[in-house]
């Protein structure tokens, strides 16, 4: 059967259309999908780059805020002792009493007890995580920092002139430490001096930053842990009144032995 020119043209046109359709669905369409996906990824990455640029530009401000927070923490913790040491509190009280000319013939200490235990969030962040290479560490957990606040109470009698007692209290206030006067009783004696008692609460906290003034507090310039080996050494006294009776007693025994009278028949 011989095809006419019209039929041959239609068959060729149909073949060309079929070839173009197959090329579009199997070649052009997948490439267009890849191109669209690549454009979306490019837009996403461009947004990330812009975000990182903004964060990098804000780093100086963040560093300034971190430094301000660290200074605030350091100033707040300066008023606390680094640790409660009874021997250091004894030296501290002795120094303040000696300089102020006030006196206290005894000092009583309470048990060391915990005032407050709090957990705060660790503000130490890794700025590298803000970069595209550090995105994998954004889910890292932050361990809380425990703040342990300890306290010890001191009860001591006070003796001295009014100016001396007030000087002692003023020197305690100038220590720049968290020292609370929980009780104060004063009365005037017949000699014009002041007598009474004072109660002091000393507080300590584990420091998050180093404090130079803690070095003098932690320093212990003594060879033994308590300062001296024995604060109450025994010193024998030579008393002639004690020695004479002992010698006389021994002599009487000797005389008795020498003058023993034998029995008579």
Q: What integer value in Å does the Rg equal? A: 45 Å
Q: What is the arithmetic mean of pLDDT?
A: 75
Total E-strand runs:
5
CATH class of the domain at 81-124 and 143-218: Alpha Beta
CATH homologous superfamily title of the domain at 81-124 and 143-218: Ribosomal protein S6/Translation elongation factor EF1B
Total of DSSP H or I helical runs spanning 4+ residues = 6
Helix content: 40-55%
Account of the 3D structure:
With 265 residues, the protein is an alpha+beta fold. Among the domains are: 5-57; 81-124 and 143-218, Ribosomal protein S6/Translation elongation factor EF1B (Alpha-Beta Plaits, 2-Layer Sandwich). 46% of the residues lie in helices and 18% in strands. It is built from six helices and five strands; from the N terminus they run αααβββαββαα. The chain has helices at residues 5-57, 59-77, 86-100, 162-173, 214-218, 240-258, and strands spanning 108-109, 113-120, 145-160, 179-188, 194-205. Strands 1, 2, 3, 4 and 5 form a five-stranded antiparallel β-sheet that branches. A hairpin with a 5-residue loop joins strand 4 (179-188) and strand 5 (194-205). The longest helix has 53 residues, at 5-57. It starts with a helix and ends in a 7-residue tail after the last helix. The relative contact order is 0.11. The model is unreliable at 123-141 and 241-262 (pLDDT under 50).
Summarize the structure.
By secondary structure, this protein is α+β, with helices and mostly antiparallel strands. The chain is built from six helices and five strands; from the N terminus they run H-H-H-E-E-E-H-E-E-H-H.
